């Protein structure tokens, strides 16, 4: 017993010597998180700084440089640039496809979780949604192109919007399913007892509760639609090309306009950044409410 106590005493002393206080643990945690944040944000800083450089400064790798707006001027005002048209196309396609996705996903989630479907229907549909979401979009682009061309929807906003709606609906269905499922059954049943029909229940009972989920799902859907490249590459031409295609046009076979590409990329960040800035509270609340409950 004495020998064991003698060996344990130095161990306990060493543990106390090397133990960290709560403040030190917090500092280390924040340093680690800041390191990860720098790794994630460094490409954005590099792109934004490159947008204000000249082509020579960028190719020479100059860290210190005099800010220059030629890249933005060429992207926005040059007669050969279609970036403003691409920007407008992305806004229209992203907004309309996001609206359609939210409407369909909310109605489908309410139907699956609140209208007494058999369990196998719910699990089959959700399982098929996961499988479809795992399919690379480029594998569907060829079939969509042939189908849209046969019905006159090739190189149209309608065809691209339908494609984006189909691509992002599985993710939205899963997200909205979590929020609709967390709506108390008692509220829905009370509204049904009062004689409210399904549209009234959706509008006055379900939607006010799932509003954070709608914001989170809508913003993610819009960002995915804004950044989508392979499908729109196949389905669009110059008139309906979106921002990713507009950025890609600055990389030609013989020359690459690095500063114009960086300027266009910087401008393309603005819509998503503004959405995240003004709706951050709803996004955090929407993405965490299902986990908390």
TrEMBL record:
It comes from Primorskyibacter sedentarius. One of its GO terms (biological process) is transmembrane transport. The chain crosses the membrane at residues 31-52, 91-113, 125-145, 157-180, 201-226, 261-279. Pfam families: BPD_transp_1. It is found in: Cell membrane. It is a multi-pass membrane protein. Keywords: Cell membrane, Membrane, Transmembrane, Transmembrane helix, Transport. Its main location: membrane. This is Carbohydrate ABC transporter membrane protein 2 (CUT1 family). Belongs to the binding-protein-dependent transport system permease family. Residues 87-279 form the ABC transmembrane type-1 domain.
